[in-house]
């Protein structure tokens, strides 16, 4: 039998985790032969609710679940983990300014970055889901000087999956038969969902797509899908966000599909002229537990404009909290 993976999840009593934990424990993330130990982290106030989640996990009698530990602090929760899913974050309160939201999360993710640095496995893979996810991932990495920035990623896979779902539905093709869809930039309404290279059954879809539909319906719909779901459900995306996290981690660990790429927010290495030192969603391929940014995709003026707008937003977010961070190292600005 394989050795269990120790997986930390923060925000473990929240809505996304209510889908995510059960999917991890059933083998959807790392395969039906990979045992797991869950190290669940919550705020002290939510520990009672977390105990309820742990009881439900026990009641599922998952054969792959080799242990559940509950923690009210990141330092204990991240001890010896090989994978960390940072789902909990400070939500935007009523009347809260964006810069205050960024600052409050900077505090949370600075502490979590330090704890990952000091207590997690040296090769830990980190996925940040909690918003503002890209900048939170950057903050965590900046506080983890002994870990490579390449170990810190944020989630744009939900946006990627949304783009495939909406495009597939529009052209009457199953999402699984679509490839080469990409999401660039920030996990926010400035993101650029890009179907210029998309293929259905291996054939380019652009020639048969109405450009007006792409620009005026498809792109804004994907960008604002989170808000559309809140309006319909009265709650933000939870099951689909959990699916995005499952897909992201599975592909990173086990490899992405041959002949295709996926979207992940990773530290920019300057590819496509995007500034180094920010966590930006790129098309990537995953192999042997690592990812690489797909190079050489054609970028026209319209795409360049959209990629720049979302890059500028990330640079602004970074500037707003830069004074709260340790000095940028050469590695952080290069990898
Ligand atoms: P939720 O409010 O239901 O749950 C969040 C949980 O995090 C709460 O139980 C809270 O107690 C906990 N938490 C807060 N601060 C914490 C800390 N410092 N340590 C440990 N736990 C902490 O929220 P939900 O719906 O589960 O969403 C979680 C986050 O994911 C939000 O920030 C949301 O905006 C974000 N999100 C990101 C998406 C993406 O695609 N990147 C998609 C959907 C949501």
UniProtKB/TrEMBL annotation:
Binding site residues for NAD(+)? 11-17, 105, 112, 129-131
Lactate/malate dehydrogenase N-terminal domain: which residues?
Answer: 6-145
Q: Start and end of every Lactate/malate dehydrogenase C-terminal domain?
A: 157-323
Q: What is its EC number?
A: 1.1.1.37
State the reactions this protein catalyses: (S)-malate + NAD(+) = oxaloacetate + NADH + H(+)
Q: What GO molecular functions are on record for this protein?
A: L-malate dehydrogenase (NAD+) activity
Per the Swiss-Prot or TrEMBL record, the active site comprises 187
Residues engaged in binding substrate: 92, 98, 131, 162
EC class, as a word, reads: oxidoreductase
The record, for InterPro entries, names:
L-lactate/malate_DH, Lactate/malate_DH_C, Lactate/malate_DH_N, Lactate_DH/Glyco_Ohase_4_C, Malate_DH_type2, NAD(P)-bd_dom_sf
Q: Which UniProt keywords apply?
A: NAD, Oxidoreductase, Tricarboxylic acid cycle
Provide a GO biological process annotation: malate metabolic process
Its function, per the record, reads:
Catalyzes the reversible oxidation of malate to oxaloacetate.
Q: Which family does it belong to?
A: Belongs to the LDH/MDH superfamily. MDH type 2 family.
The name this protein goes by in its record: Malate dehydrogenase
**What species is this protein from?**
Modicisalibacter ilicicola DSM 19980
State the encoding gene: mdh
């Amino acid at each position: 039998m394989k050795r269990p993976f120790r997986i930390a999840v923060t925000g473990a009593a929240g809505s996304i985790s209510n889908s995510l934990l059960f999917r991890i424990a059933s083998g959807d993330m790392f395969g039906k032969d990979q045992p797991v130990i869950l190290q669940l982290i919550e705020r002290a106030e939510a520990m009672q609710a977390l105990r309820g989640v742990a009881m439900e996990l026990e009641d599922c009698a998952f054969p792959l679940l080799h242990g559940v530990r509950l923690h009210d602090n990141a330092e204990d929760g991240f001890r010896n983990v090989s994978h960390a899913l940072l789902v909990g974050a400070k939500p935007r309160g009523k009347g809260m300014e964006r810069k205050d939201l960024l600052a409050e999360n900077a505090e949370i993710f600075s502490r979590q970055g330090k704890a990952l640095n000091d207590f997690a496995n040296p090769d830990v893979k980190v996925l940040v889901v909690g918003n503002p996810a890209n900048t939170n991932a950057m903050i965590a990495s900046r506080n983890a000087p002994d870990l490579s920035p390449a170990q810190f990623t944020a989630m744009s896979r939900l946006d990627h999956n949304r783009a495939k779902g909406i495009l597939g539905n529009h052209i009457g093709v199953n999402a699984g038969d679509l490839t080469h869809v990409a999401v660039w930039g920030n996990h926010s309404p400035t993101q650029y969902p890009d179907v210029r290279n998309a293929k259905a059954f291996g054939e380019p879809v652009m020639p048969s797509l109405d450009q007006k539909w792409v620009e005026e319906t498809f792109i804004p719909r994907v960008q604002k899908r989170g808000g559309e779901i809140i309006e319909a459900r009265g709650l933000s995306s939870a099951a689909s966000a959990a699916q995005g996290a499952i897909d992201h981690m599975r592909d990173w660990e086990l490899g992405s599909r041959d002949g295709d790429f996926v979207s992940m927010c990773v530290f920019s290495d300057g590819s496509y002229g995007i500034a180094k030192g920010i966590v930006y969603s790129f098309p990537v391929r995953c192999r042997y537990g690592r990812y690489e940014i797909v190079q050489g995709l054609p970028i026209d003026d319209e795409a360049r404009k959209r990629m720049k707008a979302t890059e500028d937003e990330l640079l602004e977010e970074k500037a707003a909290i830069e004074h709260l961070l340790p000095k940028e190292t050469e590695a952080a600005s290069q990898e």
